[in-house]
Protein 1
Amino acid sequence: MTQASSTSIQNAYSSGRLGSSVPALLLLTTMAVSAVLFLFLQLAGTTERYNIVGAVLLGIVLYGVILYIASRLVEGSRRAMDRLVTTLVATAFVIALLPLISVMFTVLANGSARFDLQFFTYSMRNIVGVGGGALHAIVGTVLMTLVASLISVPIGLMTSIYLVEYGRGPLARAITFFVDVMTGIPSIVAGLFAYALFAIIFGPGVRLGIAGAVALSVLMIPVVVRSSEEMLRLVPNELREAAYALGVPRWLTILKVVLPTSIAGITTGVMLAVARVIGETAPLLVAAGFTSNMNYDLFDGRMQSLPVFVYSSYVSQGTDAQASLDRAWAGALTLILIVMLLNLLARLIARYFAPKLGR
Amino acid sequence: MSSSAASTARPVRAKQRPGDRVFSGGALAAGSLILAVLAAVAAFLVLQSIPAFTTPADEVAILAGETFWTYVWPLVFGTLWSAALALLMAVPLAIGIALFISHYAPRRLAQGLGYIIDLLAAVPSIVFGLWGGNVLAPAVQPFYTWATENFGWIPFFAGPASGTGRTILTASIVLAVMVLPIITALTREVFLQTPVLHEEAALALGSTRWEMIRMTVLPFGRPGIISASMLGLGRALGETIAVATVLSSTGAVTFALFTSDNPSTIAANIALSFPEAYGVNVDVLIATGLILFAITLVVNSIARYIVSRRSAFSGAN
């Protein structure tokens, strides 16, 4: 006995611990076991298709339980708890990935059916059943988003300049607070506001492209203010002081020093704001309505937009339900591509045109 | 000329150029315009919703003979109930993800993983609606049937299960997915601001990583978690089109999660009824929108108040 214990003098750094490769091997094993189990379920006819989500989740649960028990036996309760939390936290991330992957996959798979030339060159005028496209919706989205940006970028930018360069005292605090509050306005309320505004001028039941643009700018202004404000605050004070020391007036300092330094960040913020409002459905549904015709005039009649096009082709499917659904998915794919492209461009601009502040 | 003597006594003032005056005036006007817009939103909504309260209920088609308050109560209930369910799912998940990105993932991967979660925020709500109605609802329906058959004695799981899966729980899952990136982004920022010395002190005392997080990161981040959840709540309360596409509602006031008897939400009800509404019906819908506006205003103000009380979380708002 004494012989045995003396030869097995244990390494102080590895005794009482699970080996570093144990979790990875265990994860592989439980995943394999769970995969095989679900394969049997599929072959036995319990599930129609192979249940990938179920297999992954069962594998993770098995892994967590076994690792907790093993760790509790070998390493004690504190380390076991630590390992359990690590598993849970990583699982939370995996769970969040599931809807993202599922959404992307479904939209790609279903949207590619009608993602063709006709979709981008036809409107829905006089189209019943198969065919037709979303040109009128794309034109409407571009026009309304453009006008919304033309309204909100100057207002948002000037407000952020006020907050950073001029604003002191209660008014600045009030604006900061209410910009935050404005960020939380539900999009449908913005739509109702635009409708109410234009209904008072033009009478009840009015639907106009410009009303949609106003609704979008109510949603867009606070986003632009917040992001530009953050970017303007990043401009080092030394630059401003250097300009003042050279006798440059304040407004020229802002125009020629502060804005050029932060223009990349501001552009990024504006593009992210555009990406946010371009996917808004509810305010446009309420304020701009829906139509199947081309409409280039913001001040005359209803105007279709891409999200509303998706919504209305999904809700009122008409004679050929599948054709309408296909159009809805193709519209969703277009929308996602536009939003992703805007996001990507924004990140690229932020990365490559950012001012070199560090030394 | 007499003023020259007086001006020497006054402190030196910066020269006011016309450009300066125009520019600062413009900035001030833009800032004030935002306050005006917010006031206008409230004013126009109030103005348009007055007829909803003054017109006799039996003259309004959408009320179907009931009073305004009996019409709006199931909607308010559905709004609060679905948002609460969504938060119940999203907040623990978001805290887990935020911890994973800030304290568990390898440093070099962390930013990329953050971008991936932000991608969820970029997906338009109508796409989530389509996905929830066509993919998620059929996928969870068998589980609903199973749960009502085996656990039907729990009030929440009361049967019979909905045949389409478009229940309040499915809508809440979609809502949870939509508010997840918002809560995650804010809590992540707060977790990253935990003083490194606190963390190192906890580790130096021999605590494991989880004990370190429980002792330093979570207490430090608690106000941030609360305010992030409130902001997520504000978003979930106001979400319209995803709920309108996913949920098939009957206007019932019930806590059952899996049945086809579901309450609608204020926002979804407006989106569904507005295109066909006319006359006073429009004013009734705008009045419900005003109630939604008031609810989200209160929720957001509380969140902002919590954030501003701890101005250390400057990155969190």
Note: Residues 1-7, 313-317 of chain B have pLDDT under 50 and may be disordered.
Protein 2
Amino acid sequence: MSNIPETGRTQRVTIRLIILQILVVSLLLTLGGRLWYLQIRNGQQYTQQAANNHIQEVVDPATRGQILDARGVPLADNQTRLVVTVNRTDIMKMKDGGKAVLRRLGGVLGMKYQDVADKVRLCDAKTPRPCWNGSPYQPIPITDTATTQQALQIMERREDFPGIAAQPTAVRRYAGPDGSNTAQALGYLSPVTDDEIQASMKNGQPTLQRSDQVGRSGLEHTYDSQLRGKAGIIRYEVDNRGRVIGDAGDTPAVPGDSIVTSIDSRVQAITEQQLAAAMKDARNTYDNVTHENYKADSGAAVVMDVHTGRVIAMASAPTYDPNEWVGGISAKDYAALTGKDSDYPLLNRAIQGQSAPGSTFKVISTSAAVNAGYDINGHYSCPASMSIGGQVFKNFEGEQAGDISLAHALEISCDTVFYGLSYDQWLKDGGNNPKNPADWFYKTAHQFGLGAKTGIDLPSELSGRVPDRQWKQAEYDAMKKSWCAQAASGKHDYATDIAREDCTDGNRMRAGDSVNYAIGQGDTLVTPIQMARIYSAISNGGTLYQPAIGKAIVSPDGKHVEQIPPKPVGKLPDSPQTIHYIDDALAGVVTSGTAAWKFGGWPQDKITLHAKTGTAEVYGKQTTSWFDTYSKDYAIVMTISQGGTGSGGSGQAVRNIYSALYGVQSNGSIDQKKALLPAPQQRLPKFGPDGLVQQADLTTPDPKAFAYPGNASGGPTDATPVVALAPERNEKLLLGRRYHA
Amino acid sequence: MTSSLGGYSIRRFTPERSMVGKLLARDSVVRRMDWILTAAAIALSAVGSLLVWSATRGRTSINHGDPQYFLIRHLMNLAIGIGLAVGTIAVGHRRVRGVIPILYGVSILLLLAVLSPLGSTVNGAHSWIVIGGGFSLQPSEFAKITIVLGMAMILSGRVDAGDQMHPDNRTVLQSLGLAIVPMGVILLMPDLGSTMVIVVTLLGVLLSSGASNRWVFGLLTVGAAGAVAVWQLHLLSKYQIDRFAAFANPALDPSGVGYNTAQARIAIGSGGLLGKGLFHGGQTTGQFVPEQQTDFVFTVAGEELGFVGAGLIIVLVGIILWRACRISRQATDLYGTIITAGIVAWFAFQSFENIGMTLGIMPVAGIPLPFVSYGGSSMFAVWIGVGLLQSVRIQRPVSA
């Protein structure tokens, strides 16, 4: 048709066609520019969003490290249990939302359908527990106590149980080797809380996962970060409905480090058994003051290596089974452990039990007196009673011993000697009008580490109290109002009289306060671990160690071992002569002093024991028994609340622990072969190339191997008659924190 | 042509050329075709096939368990489309002129059939006729062609006859009247996207017809006034307005259109310069973008082929449109000029709207990307369009 002349296309049409072409080009340029903006300029941002969109992460929990005793015996390890899990994303894909499968699963496991379904539902504000508060892509555990048969039923009938898995999974176990329990020192785990996940944020990523268990107390808490390891992450590529369509690279889990402790499970077992036996014995013993048997409601015992401050055994009573926490504690069990009506078994009374030290404090008073300038070789009067500030301070049973040395005063625990020394010092410090008081007795207590935490590697340690002038002032400032209010009531009973007195001058250090203080009564509070440390220091020549249970941190493959060295943190303020003097005196307590009646037949020439008894009085309660002892290797401290006297309550128990440690037989001979631990274990256990610890053989000691006198044999038996003051306090002397008697 | 009878042959004197020779002759239909346009259209269709394949491989809910289900159908559609283009070239746009009223009538009937019980609804738009066997027809796609052809016929008639310089007002009104009927039916479906495309196509047709500026600007004014009226008189509910505006701010409709646009933007944005590789886009394999084989097919290119691949699609569309504009300027009569300009406006706006909505610069409307999206009706319509372009091209002056 080319021969047909062109129709005269007008200028207008030509221009418009060019306009059309320009419009088209500009539209396309717009698209290109926008494409560049999205893909090149902001590409990074969208890449991130895309990743968030279709990558789902599932946590692969790390195996928690073991807690080992000094020989490598696991105190806490992981048990393989058959855990049945439900994969929620698989279940939800089914037409009936997995109802049929869950019903079948309930049938196999012997659970109700509703119970299974409740565990699988996701938690939100409206859903009551139980519900799953982890990632919906995480396999949800239904039970960790499946039998092999149940697991086989599930795994062999895959077609009947899509999305269900039964897999061996590591679950915490507190093995209790050698019959030990070690509950409070080990602590326990419980699931992480939302707040903790928030608090663990590092670089915008939480270091804790929802599925994590966190150490709540004891070693599990202190060494939580080392034990935990690092959870792995399995990344799935998912589609818009959450269905898994591929892998997106995994981060493998790193198992946690193991902790080697200084605890010896055998000694731990003995210590626990002996504490329990001593308390049982006390409950069979008649208290002449309250005219009923001792209640012995709680107690604690510590065995410490005197040369390192390491704890070889730590017992606290009442106790509990730490395995109760594994796999989630039931509400009922939880109430029994923590409720108002429980006896608070979770408390570690070795570091959290505070009470007045009683006469075990006298080593500090002795040191204070010597440092204050009183002659160490001098003789001091031990009258039956003293009148100080218009009040009468009696000796224990009104007995007297004439002028005696400080050593003898320690042996027989003569109160009046220390009353006199403290009163004299109080007068020197200015009495009721103090002028730059030296306060030797209080200063020395601080120097012995009282009134402060020892820094042991356990959480929630209490510091005790030294009732010095600062404390009295602080207490007065805090309490004045309520004291004065009580005083204004006009009543004339014991408590109101004290309140009245305190209302006027409760901030003043009175003569009676100082006198009372010198024998470990009154407002002084100490913990068993503090006393174990002090007596260890006397044994080792004066070094105060920071007590520790952790000895080394060992990597999972056993190749990397990080030792935790003993940490000397101070020195006793005493000269070697003073320490030697006290050391001798405390040996005398065992041979001829207040503890002698419990140590008849002890091979003191081969294994020299040193001890100090204490019987602290508590207002409204029976006396607290203290028995602080040491050999050249070990310090053993035992205390029983409402347990009677120091030697009566704990003497036999502590002796039995020493017997077990050194292999002392009932006839006084020493059988090295039967000695559990003649010297503290210094070496670390060996780790094989696979990281497994080379375990020592387990030996469960027979509690019956130790003679234990019952109520009937409550008095001295084969001990040589003592020139000492009678060990049983049967007179109400210093009731409560006051000296009105 | 040769014939062999009884062992000898008689060769005619007239230099009859062989079929191949005819096709390859300098003035032949084949040689006169715009091969650059054809190549670009085929390339675009090829890329589109890959993208449709990638988008549907894993969509087990719709592909009947066969990863190639959509690919095979898409290639069939493409083959039919190319066949229709060849047919259109063979018939030629001039010869079509005579049957335009019939085509127009058929297309109106088909559109009405959609409104009848024969029609079915897909994604909120009642614009399909299900034929059976997994095939369905979208008459609005064909209506675009008949509107262009019908208007071109009316507007060019007296100008090409030499009666007028430009179409007069009466002619313009007649052509608008022709367009308004199918537009109204499509708007009733409601198929807002196709309506928008037809309005812009109509503008292209009027522009190229030489109709007076009053008509062009008048139409623009009416459109703007209509939009303002809809807005001011609250003819649309807030939900509908949010839906419309969600392309700019996905938060306005986070579970509906906003979700589409947000996911589309993530898919394209995450592609970067070179993309994640065909079949390796997480957004695509994860089926995060709805309607990805049809309206949102461009997101597959963005994610898996990156800026380079997605840019190539825009460039190919550009080549097609550039060549189409050239053909329009070369057309020997106003009839051919209007047809080609209308097709340019149609292809250009439909591509811009489709890609623009995936990029978040245009509101979401359910229209396919020419040559690329899955869908038979659209594929047939655009290839008929190519056939018309080639037909006009073939009849250009040899010198051009």
Note: Residues 34-394 of chain B form one domain.
Protein 3
Amino acid sequence: MAFTILLADDSAMARMFIKRCFEIAGAWDAEFLEAKDGEEALELTGTHEVDLVVTDLNMPVMDGTAYVKTIHENPDIYQGPIVVITSLQNEAKQAELLNYGVHTVMSKPISPASISELLETIPGWQPPDDEESDLL
Amino acid sequence: MTKPTDGLERALLASLNVTLENMAFEQAFLRQGDDFDIAPDSTWLWARLNILNPVTGKMFIRVERACAEQLTENILGPDPEENGEAISDPMLFDAMAELINTVAGRFLQKLVADGKDFGIGLPDTGIGSCCDEKTDEVTRVAFEIAGQHHLIIGVQGNDLIALAMNRG
């Protein structure tokens, strides 16, 4: 069963770039679900088996902080790791997010190398077989 | 227009380059002289966002369409599924909005001391120029990419300019 990553960012370009970084970093066979705001992300999180949530903070409708807080207060929705990738990264914001159970806060721009390091810390993440990778 | 300090120029250059190098595999250089100071017409695109705290103001990026197309192509990468059709205006605007969002975040990390919180709004975008860049409430820095493309980053608002000049 594919490792499922939910990407929440209001920018389609940002979602595409983050997805590409994950694929280059080893998650080439992951399944990606995409949401353009926290409300869409919340709906997808509640209706799909998600292994990793990756969310921006600065989004319309429902921002990333509200999304993360809602999940934290409703653990029946999702209990897996949450990674925040944001341009708003600072120590004060990071402390607030860690209180909501966030696994890691990363500053934009990310790179395949930084995502590779991140994946090694994600519970349940296993790199795909090299043999399968070589077939691509 | 308020003339930027050397420190502000360096801080914007560093914020821009960490963004371009990671997302678009390009590097920017400070552009000397004032020959970039042409009237922005429909060949220029802009993306702008509000700085909400610790001071209020705006930051914008203004970029030649050809430059925006090149950067967007680079961000999209070689995947034919993603890059098989012509780059549309919404894609250009989305890419420029993401660039100013990332540059502004990096820039504010440098300005705001002791890891304190800061806030930025959602970007908006357009064609031409987003403001009168010649007033004292604007300072801007011009960059060159790949020896031919022009890109301008502006900081707007007296409080934000003062913070940027002091900490940049």
Note: The radius of gyration of chain A is 14 Å.
